[in-house]
Every structure is written in C-alpha cells, then in structure tokens.
Design brief:
Blueprint: H1 7-53, H2 72-92, H3 95-104, H4 108-116, H5 124-137
Helix pairs in contact: 1-2, 1-5, 2-4, 4-5
Length: 141
C-alpha cells in the first residue's frame, strides 16, 4: 500500500531536518566549546583573584612561599586551569571566537606561559607580579 505523499509535506520534513542538523552543528561545534572556555576562564579568575586577595599589598620578601598561607594550592589549580584554557583556545573554540578574543586583548597562551613555571619561583614578590601580569594577559583586571 503505497500512498502518495504531498510534496509540501516532503519539503517541510526536509527543511525541519536541515534546521535541526544546523542547530545541532552550531551547538556542538560553537556554543559548547565557547561555554567550556568561559567556564574555565571563570575558574581561573577565581583562583587568581583569591591568590591576589591574600595580599593587600605587595608581599614581603620574608613571606613564606610554601605552606598553607602561601597560596601554593591556588597557584597549582590556576596553572591547571591555564593549561585547560590553552587547550580550549588552540583546539576547541572556533576561529572567529579566537579572533574576537585577540581583538579584546585576551591571551591565554601568554597567561599560561606566565603561570607555568611558578613552582620554580621562590620570591613571593616575583610570584605576585607574575600573577598580576597573567591577570592582565587574560583581561581579568
């Protein structure tokens, strides 16, 4: 039993399929990677601002660089988030969004470079200055 299907019904079904496919592609390839990038950026901002807020001013030379009051755990998490942001920036987000970030002056690559070897820096003033530069590179402050 073969029935004749109206052509307008076929056109409507085809158009709805194409619209659904386009929506799926936009969500999977544009919106989700951008949202992951922005979520990681918020986490990085939180860690860096928490670290900066530990010091009301530039830290003293004799302030400890190890221990719970040094913020070592926050810096470790910040380095991890910075590496995640580099991954999002280089592999996941669309090119047009990367160009938008560049036009805003945000540079996750530079921020990651500044934060990557923080474990080797023993001087708390140098650490503090590097965190400030990383915030500036990300456009956070």
């Amino acid at each position: 039993m073969l029935t004749i299907i109206d052509t307008s019904l076929l056109v409507a079904a085809g158009a709805s399929f194409v619209a659904g496919l386009a929506g799926y592609i936009i969500v999977r390839l544009w919106i989700m990677p951008i949202m992951r990038y922005r979520s990681t950026r918020r986490k990085l901002r939180r860690e860096l601002t928490d670290y900066i807020s530990r010091f009301d001013h530039l830290p003293d030379e004799n302030q400890p660089t190890q221990g719970p009051e040094s913020g070592e755990k926050q810096l470790k998490r910040a380095r991890r988030y910075a590496m995640e942001m580099v991954d999002h920036y280089t592999h996941q987000i669309p090119v047009w969004y990367r160009l938008l970030l560049d036009s805003r002056g945000e540079s996750p690559l530079r921020a990651s470079d500044l934060l990557s070897n923080m474990g080797k820096i023993k001087n708390s003033q140098q650490r503090f200055q590097r965190v400030r530069k990383a915030c500036k590179a990300m456009g956070l402050k």
